[in-house]
């Protein structure tokens, strides 16, 4: 390692060099920066952007690993019940290297890895390339936020998404959602959600959120008696009767359901959220505000009821565990750049997300998943919320000063 460190130091380009920041990000991947603030006049803090992003990145691991295992559980179960010997796509040759025994834990995890890792690598390479191009042109640092955006985008995708769609989505999210506004810290939209919204509206029939998301399913056709539909999709069509006939609440809470790669286990996601709150990376006000808004809105609709729309009857604790509510709550809504930054503003921001997501899920029967749009809409409101709160606080201080 000493040789490698010396190599970087000897070949370090001047800051005026076009590729200085590209070189620096590669060096920082192996070694921490030697530049440190010293002196009594400076405020020093262990928490910097790099450490914040590393914490968020590590916090995605439980949902990521469970998502791969869960994907293999449903995928191999589907192949076994259908009597299929192949997935019918290019993944099959890699899957066969380990095996397709539906009761083997290693086979389940390997199956999920074969589908997820190519998605993540494609998204990671595309996203970092876009970031590097803009950093080189604008001559600013390559921020670690791109690492988090790529993993969150990957985890929000269905397991059977074509790789070219994943690449186009993250490119749109990084370029349009962040870089066109000046880069990290200047964007008002969550880049991962912006990319996810782009591919949803570009390819709505494939990414609606209520289709059958089981790897290999589309290639082999349907199986009588096998339901791979997401719990949220079933709820939109059949309400509580449909959900109860397919899943228990415990299954949806712990993650034994089909769905996007990272959204299935509410339990692991909430554990990650607790860790992020403990490390002061995520705002507990946003989390509890979102939960409060969702609980109040869903409970109100439960009381109103509907004879034609079964989603009115879904209680709040089911809204918590089905779809991407928990995933968006912990990883997306708490993103500090695009969220509100005043304490009261965070409560309003979170409550807005909770109310809007339930309204979209329940009132709009064509789009049962509403977390993505709810957070993006709240992103647009966040600057106005903070401006209003700070203006009111300033006015109160001026009144006290003048009195």
TrEMBL record:
Coiled coil: none annotated. It comes from SAR86 cluster bacterium. The modification FMN phosphoryl threonine is found at residue 230. The keyword Mitochondrion does not apply. It catalyses: a ubiquinone + n Na(+)(in) + NADH + H(+) = a ubiquinol + n Na(+)(out) + NAD(+). It is found in: Cell membrane. Its cofactor is FMN. PANTHER family: ELECTRON TRANSPORT COMPLEX PROTEIN RNFD, NA(+)-TRANSLOCATING NADH-QUINONE REDUCTASE SUBUNIT B. Its main location: membrane. One of its GO terms (biological process) is respiratory electron transport chain. GO terms for cellular component: plasma membrane. GO terms for molecular function: FMN binding; oxidoreductase activity, acting on NAD(P)H, quinone or similar compound as acceptor. The gene is nqrB. It is a multi-pass membrane protein. It comes from the Bacteria. NQR complex catalyzes the reduction of ubiquinone-1 to ubiquinol by two successive reactions, coupled with the transport of Na(+) ions from the cytoplasm to the periplasm. NqrA to NqrE are probably involved in the second step, the conversion of ubisemiquinone to ubiquinol. Its EC number is 7.2.1.1. Belongs to the NqrB/RnfD family. Keywords: Cell inner membrane, Cell membrane, Flavoprotein, FMN, Ion transport, Membrane, NAD, Phosphoprotein, Sodium, Sodium transport, Translocase, Transmembrane, Transmembrane helix, Transport, Ubiquinone. The chain crosses the membrane at residues 52-69, 109-134, 286-304, 316-334, 346-364, 370-392. Composed of six subunits; NqrA, NqrB, NqrC, NqrD, NqrE and NqrF. This is Na(+)-translocating NADH-quinone reductase subunit B.
């Amino acid at each position: 390692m000493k040789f490698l460190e010396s190599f970087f130091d000897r070949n370090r380009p001047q800051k005026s060099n076009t590729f200085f920041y590209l070189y620096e990000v590669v060096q920082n991947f192996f070694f921490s920066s030697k530049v440190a603030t010293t002196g009594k006049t400076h405020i020093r803090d262990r928490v910097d952007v790099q450490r914040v992003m590393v914490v968020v990145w590590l916090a995605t691991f439980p949902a990521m690993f469970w998502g791969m295992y869960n994907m293999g559980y449903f995928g191999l179960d589907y192949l076994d019940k259908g009597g299929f010997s192949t997935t019918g796509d290019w993944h099959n040759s890699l899957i066969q290297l380990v095996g397709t025994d539906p009761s083997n834990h290693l086979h389940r995890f390997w199956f999920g890895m074969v589908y997820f890792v190519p998605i993540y690598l494609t998204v990671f390479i595309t996203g970092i390339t876009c970031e590097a191009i803009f950093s080189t042109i604008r001559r600013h640092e390559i921020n670690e936020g791109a690492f988090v955006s790529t993993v969150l985008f990957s985890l929000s995708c269905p397991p059977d998404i074509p790789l070219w769609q994943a690449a186009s989505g993250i490119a749109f999210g990084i370029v349009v959602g962040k870089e066109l506004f000046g880069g990290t810290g200047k964007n008002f939209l969550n880049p991962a959600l912006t990319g996810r919204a782009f591919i949803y509206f570009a390819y709505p029939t494939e990414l609606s959120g209520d289709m059958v998301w089981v790897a290999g399913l589309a290639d082999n056709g349907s199986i009588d008696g096998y339901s791979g539909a997401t719990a949220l999709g079933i709820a939109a069509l059949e309400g509580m009767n449909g959900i109860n006939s397919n899943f228990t609440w415990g299954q949806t809470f712990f993650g034994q359901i089909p769905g996007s790669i990272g959204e299935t286990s509410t339990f692991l996601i909430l554990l990650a959220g607790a860790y992020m709150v403990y490390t002061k990376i995520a705002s507990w006000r946003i989390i509890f505000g979102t939960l409060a808004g969702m609980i109040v809105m869903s409970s109100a609709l439960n009381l109103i009821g509907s004879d034609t729309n079964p989603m009115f009857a879904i209680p709040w604790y089911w809204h918590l565990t089905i779809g991407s509510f928990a995933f968006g709550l912990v990883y997306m809504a708490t993103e500090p750049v695009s969220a509100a930054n005043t304490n009261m503003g965070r409560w309003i921001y979170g409550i807005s997300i909770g109310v809007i997501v339930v309204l979209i899920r329940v009132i709009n029967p064509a789009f049962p998943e509403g977390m993505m749009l709810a957070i993006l809409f709240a992103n647009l409101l966040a600057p106005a919320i903070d401006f209003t709160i700070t203006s009111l606080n300033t006015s109160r201080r001026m009144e006290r000063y003048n009195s």
